[in-house]
């Protein structure tokens, strides 16, 4: 092992830069050369490589986004695309690659490593925190705090006007972000795909809210809720309760960026170092995970399955505190 | 003058609490009694009054929203509603009132003061900063910084993915917030109602952006732009430039809340004290304004006209820096 | 069990309000009455009690500090003081108490519960995160992020001037905060009581830094480091390296306050609910802890022993990344 | 005019990067070449120059500190040093220079321009906002907000414990930052060099505070107060009022860094463009200032005199609100 590549793939997540820095510095400290692959698998296909020295990753630890950029690549899903990518890696004398991304990125790595016996190590980087085999993915803690700070602001207006706000947060298939931000902001109701009976809770709240003109409310909605997004739900509520002052806020893309929290920086750093360790230990096709704060190795085969489990205890707590 | 009322009206704005605190404490220091009128003109009609002592306004200086709540009142627009309001004020022995709000709130005060010879003093509180006769309205500086911080986050993603983001900010009739946040965030294009030729600039940028796959861009859009909001404009762009990765973010209600900036707290405090001074000086039907950091008195008659002028120099600067 | 008390004790920590809210609402939902005891054990002795309804804890979730206030009490350390406290609890018909604080607060609770067979349940609230038996104490995550944001600012100046900054953070006996914030900020050196050889690392860095005029550096210092605080260490360095531009920043009390992070709010809420659950299950003299995100019960006898263990792996990582 | 230089000098201030970006882009748009001079006058003497293209100043608008670095230079104060500097500028074919800094930086520019008839244009960049002839200096608004956010945190602890905090902020000769942050945070007392009788106010507050055990207080202290810094004043107070729980917090270097506020970014941008305009208009030895939001030209001769005037009205307001 003499030269490794590192890249980011899929949606950007705060802390990816911290992971790139840790991979680079840990590799350099172990006398490896490091190459940054820009724009994910697409850049790999195009040979968009830059050498990384210690100084190149200086001052990026606290920045959101990813200095290596990221992209989707339809071409990489074809055998021809992967062949091009493999040839680019060989040409650049790259012996192994660290990929920072989500389950889609790991699937790509798994297929290519099977076709070409090329070692990939994964680091989970996605604000959704829905990867199987790890308690934690890079970016989730920052995104959660971004949502909480945004909802705190909305709550100022909700309380001042006695309004009911439907706030939609990311989570197409999972309600983790909606559930935790809802608890953290004291949301009156939380609507997530995993829950049964949460719309009953909404109706109960609206009946109660209907009666007192001072009541305000925050309803957190995961974008993947079975009843539709915040706009559809609010529309229905407006019809059924025309007296209520109902508003919608879709947080959207502000949930992705921003300077990473302490936790995202520390964990990204730990995982970056662990990825280089794994390569030095001759590992391949595994994702670095965290289980109870300890580093674990999770086979890509497992990690590509999404984890949708949710702390049902938190849902009970939310209901209890809003009875 | 023995007892005054104070209330907030219209949309909530960060710094309103600082103004309520300053009015209350300045009045108490001048041996006046103070009554908080809750929920704007509607609360006035209903007699929803609370006495305010020094302690009641302790710890609110740094909070967003308004502790007195705010509301719209259709009833106050009727002579009957205003009569009820006047009777409530008389019954509570309130001799004069300080109203914190926007042009609509001042219109209401003007009408009522003409009908009943009742003294009102206004303090401009609106994040739009579009009131005639004052350089500054409470909440604008905080809203501007909230927008800038949100766009900084979006820019992380835009740069990481090479995307073009249309970011819509508040400003139904004015582009002040879009223009200043656009300059502050280095937006590539700014689309505001006041500008001519800004869509030419957009087209020019898109031609340029079309060619290089790494180019990202932030297009700030004031909600009142003549070409429609961000969603419509982005749709048109997607059709004309199907190769570009175009996204939309509507900042919405997060622009309203949040802990006020230093400037909003200091100015709200100055204006609150000046409002009580004006009442002690036997003034009425004026708004407290700031002209070059100095307190000025602006007749309601003038203040209710919106000020849509915009610093055209800033538009030139924006174009110059993005040539 | 019909009426419970709740209070905060020791140093304030962000998230204490979230815990007070959760205890109150969970108790009310279980048909218990709730009394807030103000100013810790001193307020207990003086009978400084306030009834808590659901509304009284509305809007406090996101506020730093503690609405119940906190204080040290020399009197409570005497048998006479504890007798007074017990009589006040009896007089107010309080059947059990939830105490939110650190090891000193739990020691007091343990002694009193042994003397008077009175049930106490503890919730760990301290920014030091040094309580035995729990992975987490309320306030630590917020304090860590506050430190990180402050050091990010200092780093701007350090890099602009090529300066070396010694930044002192809280931690009289433990280096947890210094270690984690140091990793999160990319500190060149971290000096903590638990480490051996960290001053060698400092010397090595200074030799290197001495040679290049552009080098800047952040040295994190836990206040309890064996070599003294940041001021003493910097003084010694200035003597040995008069050419270096050395500065000191003691973060001090800004580390304690501020709006709690999402994690501190969610965990404080979980723990508050779990404390009421424990009382309903007839538990006493235990602290609610979190072990791998799950609620655990830790006997006060164990929790009063401080946990000074530190992740030595993190120290190795820090050295590796700065070779 | 074909090639200009730009540099930052003196203490770093948030917004300096925005000014460097605006100077660079405005010059490039006017077909000028741009050279960045690193590390202030010292870098000028050493010929530490880098060419600046549009891309080199991309992504710096929102960063604190200065990408061109800054330094003090004893050598530049000697005729020999200035001769070296002049020769380096000539050698690099630089025709004129924009200097971003404080009064010391302008003094240097004035002396050199008189000795060598070399055109300098100044942009005021200092968090102290104490330059004659301009309402505004780059960095002040950010520093003010940083102080306010830090004091908000300290206030959480002060209120929770009933403590009195002496908070020392920057301002060796001027109390502007202390006065405005004190108003913005609701400080009970503000001690600044410009005020008479402020220590009487302190004594009055302490007498009052002494009586009620729940009173907390924030005393803002400008470092240049005639009674000494916060540590000395607090020591005296502790002796005279041993019953009070008195603490000190010196904010120090965190006041300098951080992402600039919207205002600092917009004004730095305006001033950067205006500096290039001035050079194109064949101006020299002037500082770009802002007078009531409009660009003005202030001769260096005037700008090097510090402006210590303070809004005495604000001091009266502070006293009024704390009677």
Please explain how this structure is put together.
The structure is a homotetramer of 323-residue chains. In chain A, helix 1 (16-29) packs parallel to helix 9. Chain A has helices spanning 16-29, 40-46, 79-91, 103-116, 140-161, 176-185, 198-211, 230-240, 262-280, 300-303, 312-321; strands spanning 3-8, 33-37, 49-51, 96-101, 120-124, 164-169, 189-191, 217-222, 246-250, 286-291, 294-299. The mean pLDDT of chain A is 94. Chain A has 2 domains: 3-139 and 260-303, Rossmann fold; 140-256, Phosphofructokinase domain (Rossmann fold, 3-Layer(aba) Sandwich), CATH 3.40.50.460. The first copy, chain A, contains 11 helices and 11 strands. The radius of gyration of chain A is 22 Å and the shape is elongated. In chain A, strand 10 and strand 11 form a beta hairpin. Chain A is an alpha/beta fold. In chain A, the strands form 2 sheets. Chain A has a 7-stranded mixed sheet, sandwiched between helices. In chain A, strands 7-8-6-9 form a 4-stranded parallel sheet, with helices on both faces. Chains in contact: A-B, A-C, B-D, C-D.
